[in-house]
Amino acid sequence: MLIFKTVNQYNQWYLNLDDKNSLGFVPTMGALHKGHYSLIEKSVKENKTTVVSIFVNPTQFNNPKDLENYPSSLEKDIEFLKNSGISVIFAPNVAEMYPKGTGNLLQIDLRHIDKIMEGQFRPGHFNGVVTVVSQLFKIIKPANAYFGEKDFQQYMVIRRLCELKFPDINIIPCETIREEDGVAFSSRNTLLTNNTRLKAKLLYNTLQNAADMFKKMTEKELNQWVEKTINSVEGFRLEYFEIFDDQNLKPVSNSTTHARIFIAVHVDGIRLIDNLKFKP
Ligand code: AMP
């Protein structure tokens, strides 16, 4: 397993790479956990070579405090990836990723996807995401890139990015990996106190219950129930709860087979997101 910190190092390695059509790529922001590992395992299984990037991208954080607090543990991450079967870790610094500075972000037409949920509550977030992923795709030149459904809206944004700018890269969605109590693995979970971590399972429980009630209630009633359930817990504040068709992130009817529910909650000041596909 090689560790490259510069684009030059990567380019030299890539020149001699034999089967460029079987290059898998998993972009991450580090503080790796089992959720990341499932993407990596899938890539290793489906490609001859896998590259993992570790880069905490400043331009996708709309809140400077959130960026400052974001966990980072490169040495631990390297250890974690040792026997994973990947060939390269690409771990650049900000200057390497943004040689012209962070002021000039990629603007692409994300249509309505940028105006809902994460796009609505984290202004500029997806500009940062498409900028960094576009830059990484240009450097790494993968055939296949793996993204988690944990960040389902991000996956849809990346699909749109590829439709417009990288039609040759396959984007492969990977299901959300959860801890035993249902909480989705997330680097942000390490920021929770033990007590808050225990309470965090309410997000997944609420998604499951809402999925059961979807066909029995109006959307308004369901929204009210979710708001009451979340906000009645001390330290919890609901940011959004939404139901969309997961083929296009547009509103659904009760009869759709592609409904997915999404939730964002501030849990003792830490912002957690999750989503769940309905069983038809
Ligand atoms: P991050 O490091 O949080 O930017 O995540 C890197 C990639 O891992 C993204 O494609 C995420 O959607 C994915 N990911 C994060 N957590 C999970 C999880 N619990 N299950 C599956 N994929 C995940």
Give an overview of the whole structure.
- This protein is α/β, with parallel strands linked by helices and 280 residues long.
- It has 11 helices and 9 strands.
- The chain has helices at residues 7-15, 34-46, 64-69, 74-81, 94-97, 117-121, 125-140, 152-165, 194-199, 201-213, 219-231, and strands at residues 2-4, 23-28, 49-54, 88-90, 144-148, 170-174, 236-245, 259-267, 270-277.
- It has a 6-stranded parallel β-sheet with strand order 1-4-3-2-5-6, with helices on both faces. A 3-stranded antiparallel β-sheet has the order 7-8-9, covered by helices on one side.
- Strand 2, helix 2 and strand 3 form a beta-alpha-beta unit.
- Helix 7 (125-140) crosses helix 8 and helix 10 runs antiparallel to helix 11 (219-231).
- The longest helix is centred in the middle third of the chain and has 16 residues, at 125-140.
- The protein binds adenosine monophosphate (AMP).
Bound ligand species: adenosine monophosphate
The helical percent reads: 25-40%
Point out poorly predicted stretches: none
The residue-averaged pLDDT reads 95
Radius of gyration: 19 Å
Distance between the termini: 43 Å
